[in-house]
Specification:
Elements (H helix, E strand, L loop, with lengths): L7 E4 L5 H12 L3 E4 L4 H13 L4 E3 L7 H8 L6 E4 L19 H29 L2 E8 H4 L7 H21 L4 E8 L12 H4 L10 H12 L10 E4 L7
Parallel strand pairs: 1-2, 1-4, 2-3, 4-5, 5-6, 6-7
Helix pairs in contact: 1-8, 3-4, 4-6
Amino acid sequence: MFELDGKTALVTGAGQNVGAGIASTLASQGAHVFVNDIVAARAGEVADAIGAAGHSAEALPFDVTDGDAVREAIADRPIDILVNNAGNGGAQGMAVKPFAQTEPADWAGPLAVNLDGVMNSTHAVLSGMIERGWGRIIGVVSGAGTVGVNIGVAAYSAGKGGAAGLLRSVALEVAHTGVTVNSIALGLMSNTGATGVTDHLARAIPTRRLGTPEDAGALCAYLASEEASWMTAQTIPLAGGAITS
């Protein structure tokens, strides 16, 4: 069940944390995984680790906010499964502060990677999936984009919410073609590199633990599988019982 033998998967932002966990899980289910990251060395390390575990992967570094770079990277690589995971604040990071204290320049990075990056990658793979009559597109969004959070990341919330809306609409446009499109609204995750910003929120999670990359990977494996062929246009909460939609 949930076998991905013979499928090719592209996981964006997979050089660390949640993306690395998703890439590793998809590879363990039989997919050949293209490990994307804006930092080539990170992509290479994850691809090497997947290979050392006996699975199939290769690094494919590019910047998802650069549409030309996305199209060039996958031009000769048919993609069956796309996981739009690249996010956070982009290459420059994200300023954590109340929206009233931000400037338009602070919004550019979070919007570019969380919304434009999803548009670029989705658009680049979609026609090929339609032509082949099979495809899986998954967006890693956030409760920040579905119900909002009071931690000073409003532009990030806007990007994630925009991506979820985009993918729902794309899902309905292509539902008759054999291509499914869904999003995962992640709750608070461990191993994200953040320190202190969400500590006070973590105590309120009903399961009393943060999410892990493996949690995200398991749901992605299902959504990428043949068994999920009737699951589309959904934003699925994965948050340990916290409300994210």
